[in-house]
Specification:
membrane; transmembrane helix; 8 helices; two-stranded antiparallel ribbon; transmembrane
Amino acid sequence: MLVIFLPMCVYTIVVLFPLIFLLDSSATFFWYSMMPPRFNHIGVFVGFIFFETAIVTTFTAAPMFALSLQLLFFQNISTTISSHLKIYRCVNIPQEQIILTLNACKTLQLEVQNFNEIFSYVIFTFKVAALTVNILSIFVAIKTFRVYPVFAVANLLLAADVSTMFTVLYDQTFWIPSQLKRLKRTVMYALVRIQPPSGIFPKIALHTLRSIPAVGIKVGDFHLFERASTPNFVNFVKRSLQGVLLTFPTSA
């Protein structure tokens, strides 16, 4: 569901752009407004709609692809852990299954570490961009709502779009280290039930489990995603918006 939702959420930007263009093609942030009066006819207008929409689509395609890769990674981690936890609902777990789960735990740990090496700064960049877009979009919407309501509503939709993407995509990342710990603990309980308990396999398996750290998703080199990351995101936007509105008050 989220894999379908994310591209739709990102391309709200692309949908809003030509709608504003159609409602007010003379806005100064469109290239069409810079054309001489003799070129102000329907053919040039339609051409610029496709041209400028293609530019916006190109700029949003790469971030959307990066976000989709992250989402698919989180879904893969979730599915893998959940499938192994379901197996351990049985009373008697064969030794071969425990070995498979040990390998899965080690693989998950390495995958998360590799993900952090590649995407930690991508996540940090997206977080900064999401904060900036939210603050500026809501600020512009408040300032322009009376004189240009269509543009104000578009900015509000853009802010809601980016906020939804951030919360939906990263709200469950704090779940990964806790679920890895739960999976390791479940395997330990299964090892205790192995007969005879004095064998060499339980000792090796316990040593292997203890050597696997419960890694989390990093945001740059600063910190990991935590349960409070989304509330902190919303609170920062609220406080920053209040500061900007107080700094640039509406003139009487």
